Amino acid sequence: MGKLVVANNLTLTYENNPVIKSSNFTINSGDFVFLTGVSGSGKTTIIKSLYGELKPHSGNLRIGEFNLFNISKSKLSTLRKHLGIVFQDFKLIPEWNILKNVMLPLLIAGVNKNEAEQRAMEYLSRVKLSHKADKFPAELSGGEQQRAAIARATIHNPVMILADEPISGLDEYSASLVMDLFIKANQKGITIVIASHSIPTEFSINFRQLHIEKGKIYELA
Ligand SMILES: Nc1ncnc2c1ncn2[C@@H]1O[C@H](COP(=O)(O)OP(=O)(O)O)[C@@H](O)[C@H]1O
Ligand SMILES: [Mg+2]
Question: Which end of the chain has less neighbouring CB within 10 Å, N or C?
């Protein structure tokens, strides 16, 4: 499989405070990657760099044909159309019902409303939320909001899903639905990157672990 993400001597900083220091890693197409490290180690920082929210301070960061160091706004929005992002705080749109929230990536991609609605209903049923389609985010529990966020992140068949602590704070039922969705997406060839302080026990599929420690990224077997 080809290399999808290549980081060379990557340094990520906030106002000159380095969080990731001259690190190297690659992610291949189709990989299932856990990005691990203690709280404050830089997991969210790396996820942010991968969707272009945080520009590299120095070094190289490439995703496919895109160079994140000097990417233009229009190329960044093209890149993001190929990503599915699951934020630590869900970022569902509060004024929209769950159905419309899940439809969003399809609407951005120009899919017509009827088809988008049908597909969103199908994805809501996969995360066992069909009965909440017309509810608003504030009317759902945290686990339900996370499941809706994951339906939204996968509905447009992205090349890569970036998920920041997607199961922390979820009950067992929601967590297993969520992990199942990631596994199914990966089986379709979607590259998965999950930031998580630990790897779920009884995790049965092949995965890689990139571990952050003291600003450096190590591959753990
Ligand atoms: N916007 C920011 N401005 C300044 N420092 C930040 C910002 N976001 C994160 N940091 C710092 O960067 C480090 C890594 O944070 P983060 O990537 O959120 O860690 P993790 O997700 O692994 O818990 C922490 O020391 C944190 O305080
Ligand atoms: Mg974090």
Answer: C
